[in-house]
Queue: 3 jobs
Job 1
Amino acid sequence: MKEKIAILGGGNLGASIAEGLMRDNFVSPKNLTVTRRKIELLDHLKKRGVQIASDNAKAIIGADTIIIAVKPKQSSELLEQIRNHIKAKQILVSVVTGISTDIILEIIGRKITVFRVMPNTAIAIGESMSCVSAVNATKAQSNRVAKLFGNMGKVAQIEEELMDASTVLGACGIAFALRFIRAATQGGIEIGFDYQTAELIAAQTVKGAASLVLQRGRHPEREIDLVTTPQGCTIAGLNEMEHQGFSSSLIKGIVTSFSKI
């Protein structure tokens, strides 16, 4: 893809997006610009051919797509810096949590194309779940953004009012899934495995379970039915987990995170 992209904010998420875009040379490093106040922290990207800068206004010159990846408290200042430099043909993509398109447009002060995208940290390895909403976008522009983030995982088009919910389920969800892997690893150690083997088995099993759902498109309970036999060890373990509140704890955790956001 020959599209030129400026990522404003080269922190963990911004750098991960840059890494994801460069996978399989989908976007050439020379067509990527990443900004950060302390540009020395972007040396790992510079060594790969990415343009790095500290001036956000200059960084967006000539970019087809501008991705804002700063912390929420920094977003107003950044938008003020670039508001007079954004061209009508440029697409503005925000991956900033909690900053609505109404706020973005109010600061910019005119009608532009704005996308909100909520990816997760697996974007760096091409396995993100990215939820996308847009205002003032054409179908062609929507397809462009979907293609960009589709190269880094799965994409779901949603209404903006669900963006906070997608943050919890998709972005916070990474931590929830990792906590399951950690707990399963600890259980594996208790029943006899060393740490490395237990972690490998737990992580690959979670990956396999997710792949079954994504590739077969069947309800998780249908896949569960295939491995639960009468009076077997699987159903015994599942029932004990439910007695201890496994499903309800996860649901409550998701709802609590949503209330917090």
Job 2
Amino acid sequence: MENRFENASDEVKELVENVIDNSFRELRNAKILVLFDCKKRISKGKMVMGRMQKTNDLLRHLTLDNTMDEDGYDYILYLDKMIITNIQEEDQIRIIRHELQHAEVDYDSNKPYKLRDHEISDFYDEIEFNSDDARWGVRIASIGHDMYEQEADRD
């Protein structure tokens, strides 16, 4: 049986780190596990290209060995493998930036890492960042649907 998830490639992990360094400095100390989702995922009729999850106590415990400290990971960033490995870096960054927008840091809390929902159907910061391609999500989702259809045709 094929696993649904696998560790992201070093190249994608490095890209995530670069996006954090350039745009999300508050996340520099957050421990983020980056995984590929190897199966097509649809939610509310839309293709899921990425997803950000805050870890709970169980996930933190299960990831202790991976982080080399007593806390485990703070977040898990899931990226659709089919899509993220077959699009240009600019579009990879769009997906990663969007998902990292869901991470929120509250340094006054004893559990500083939180999740936030969309402000609108996107994030205000992302509208400006993606002003050159406002419908990037629809475009990439369409590419993803096509790739999954081609894969199904080969099987």
Job 3
Amino acid sequence: MLELYHNETSVCAAKVRFALEEKGLEWTGRHVDIFAGEQHRPEYRRLNPLGVVPTLVRDGTSFIESNIINEYLDDAFPEVRLRPADPSERARMRLWTKQLDDSVHHAAAVLSYSIAYRFFQLSKTPQEIEALLMGINDPERRERNRDLIERGVESRFFAGALRRFQKLLADMETTLARKEWLSGQSFSLADIGLAPYIARLERLQLSPLWDERPNVAGWFERTRSRPAYRRAVSDYYDRAPQAKQLLEEKGTESWPRVKAFLNGS
């Protein structure tokens, strides 16, 4: 039995749901309210010491880190392959997924919190905010989140996160000018891994970032037309109406400031 501890809005959880649906696997979802801090509860930390989602549990064994979970699923259930057979394409796939862990996920968290999710926390009392922050074990991440909550798009982390996505989109545009999918001719874990991040940009009303990148736009359209994407990503977004409204409204409100950053002012 496969159990996935996840949240509707988490990009990392969306990656794993996407892989599960592409493989046609049966799984049971366990909702974790990350805005209420449920990921920091001791019973969850026993499954995932990092206190993040997702966590996959199979027959009592826990697997953490979304890219590693997806590679595990591809090893454990090889009937539908999500890694290219060609060694060169497989290496390119890993270069894309490695970027997510190295820097892209961090940049996505900065944009998401500074533009929108900070308002979930600002509705709480100062004591509640402090308790949530102190639940984060990593001091650097804790202070980053504090700055994002307090300063929003004026946070010292915001411009760097925006630049990181500009580079990612530029690299994708170059690659997709020559290939249908990110690793080559086959749809892979690279596409599954990056799609939720591009979807997050779209929900933050940042799709103008690829207005002049037609290859990225075409790839995103091909990816989200897949039935597994709808079941794993789009449908779950619709199940979180409060987050959906917040992302869209605050994204629209923030666009003039974002555009100023893009223009260097």
